[in-house]
Amino acid sequence: MFGTEFFAAFSAVLTVVLLIASGYLLSMRGKITQEVSSFITWIVVNISLPCVTASTIISSFDKSEVLSMPIFLAAPLVSVALGYVAGYVVAKLARPKEGRFGQMVALTAQNNTIFMGLPVNIAMFGEASVPFVLYYYIANTLFFWTLGVYAISEGKRKKGKNIFGIFVTPPMFGVYFGILGLLFGLVPPKPVMDTLKYLGSLTTPLSMIFIGHVLFRSGLSKIRLEKDVIVGIICRFAIGPAIAVPIFIAFGVKGLMLSVFVVQAFMPVMANSAIVAEQYGSDSRYAAVMTSVTTLVSLLILPLVKVFLI
Predict the structure, then answer these.
(1) Which of 16, 163, 172, 303 is most buried, judging by how many CB atoms fall within 10 Å of its CB?
(2) Virtual CA dihedral for 203, 272, 86, 247, nearest 10 degrees?
(3) pLDDT at res. 5
(4) Which CATH number belongs to the domain containing residue 59 in this structure?
(5) Containing domain of residue 213, as a range?
(6) Which one has a higher pLDDT value, 10 or 201?
(7) Region 133-148: what's the mean pLDDT?
(8) In the structure, what pLDDT confidence band is assigned to residue 117 with cuts at 50, 70 and 90?
(9) Which of 300, 290, 294, 230 is nearest to 267 (CA)?
C-alpha cells in the first residue's frame, strides 16, 4: 500500500520535472532564443492562463456552487493571506538579494495549485478531488495575480498603475468571465469552450518549458544551495504548510476536502513566478531555481504527505 501510494504521487510530480527538462534541452539545442522566451511569457500571461481559468470554472461548477463558493474559499483565502504576513516577516529577517524579497514573500504563501496540484491530486484521490482542487486554485489565483504580482514586481509596475490595477490583469479577467458566465447563465457554446480549453492546455507545458530555458540561460551548473534558496525551501515546505493546515482544521474542513487542501499546501513554487519576475525585471533566475528545486524536493515531500499526514 505504501509503495503504491508513494509511486502514484511520485509519478505525477516527475511529469513536471520532465517538462522542465525538455525546455532545458530545447534551449541547449538553440531552439529557444530570447525572442522565443519573451513570446512564451506573453502568450501564457495574456492568452492561455485566462483561457484555462475561465474554462475550468465554467466546466467544473454550476450556479449554486458559485453562490456557495465563498464558504469553501474561506479557509484557503485566510491561509494564503496569513502566509503573506509570515513571508514578509521571514524576508525581512533573511534579507535576500535584490529582486528576491517579494518572491520570498509570495512563495511562502502561494504554490503550484493547478499545474501540479490537479494531476497530483487526481493521481492520489481520483476525479472526486477536482472540485476541491479548484476551490484552492481560485483562492490561490485571486491572491497571486493581485498581491502576488504586486509583491514580485517590487514597484517595477508601469507608472500610473496603482494597487487597484492588479485586479485587471488578464488572468483575473478569466476568473471574472468564468464566475459571471455561470451566475448569469452566459455559458459559451461548445466551439468557444473547446477553444478555451485548447488554448488553456498550453499553460502547463509552456510554463515548464520557460523555466527550463531560464535554467539553461542562467547555467544549471551554477545552482547552489545558497542562503536564499534554503530559506525559500523552508518557507515553501515548512512555514507555509505550518500556517495553512491549522487554518483548515480551525475552519472545520474535513474528509476529502481536507486531504486535498493539505496536499495543496505542500505544493512547490508556482511556475508562473518566473514568468512574472521576467516580465517585471525581478530576479527571474531565482524564481526559476526555486520552482525547479522545490519541484524536485516535492518528489519526496508529496508522497510522504500522502502516506503519513492524510
Answers:
(1) 16
(2) 0
(3) 66
(4) 1.20.1530.20
(5) 2-309
(6) 201
(7) 86
(8) confident
(9) 294
* Residues in Cβ contact with 185 at an 8 Å cutoff, skipping those fewer than 6 apart: 63
Over range 140-163, report the average pLDDT. Answer: 73
The pLDDT confidence band at residue 157, using thresholds 50, 70 and 90, is low
Cα 69 to Cα 15, 115, 129, 180, distances in angstroms: 31, 21, 16, 13
Residue 268 and residue 295: Cα distance in Å, rounded? 5
With contact defined as beta carbons under 8 Å apart, do 236 and 108 qualify?
yes
Phi, psi of 161 (to 5 degrees): -90, 135
**Helix/strand/coil (H/E/C) assignment for every residue in the chain:** CHHHHHHHHHHHHHHHHHHHHHHHHHHHCCCCCHHHHHHHHHHHHHHHHHHHHHHHHHHHCCHHHHHCHHHHHHHHHHHHHHHHHHHHHHHHHHCCCCCCHHHHHHHHHCCCCCCCHHHHHHHHHCHHHHHHHHHHHHHHHHHHHHHHHHHHHCCCCCCCCCHHHHHHCHHHHHHHHHHHHHHCCCCCCHHHHHHHHHHHCCHHHHHHHHHHHHHHHHCHHHCCCCHHHHHHHHHHHHHHHHHHHHHHHHCCCCHHHHHHHHHHHCCCCCCHHHHHHHHCCCCHHHHHHHHHHHHHHHHHHHHHHHHHHC
pLDDT digit string, tens, across residues 258-296? 999 999 999 999 878 888 888 888 888 899 889 888 888
Which residues, 6+ apart, have CB-to-CB distance to 272 below 8 Å?
Answer: 44, 45, 49, 144, 207
Give, rounded to a whole angstrom, the gap between the first and last alpha carbons of the chain: 14
Q: Is residue 213's pLDDT more than 50?
A: yes
Chain-centroid distance, C-alpha 243: 18
Report how many domains make up the chain. Answer: 1
- The mean per-residue pLDDT over the stretch 205-229 comes to 80
Which pTM does this prediction carry?
Answer: 0.77
Which amino acid is it at 248?
F
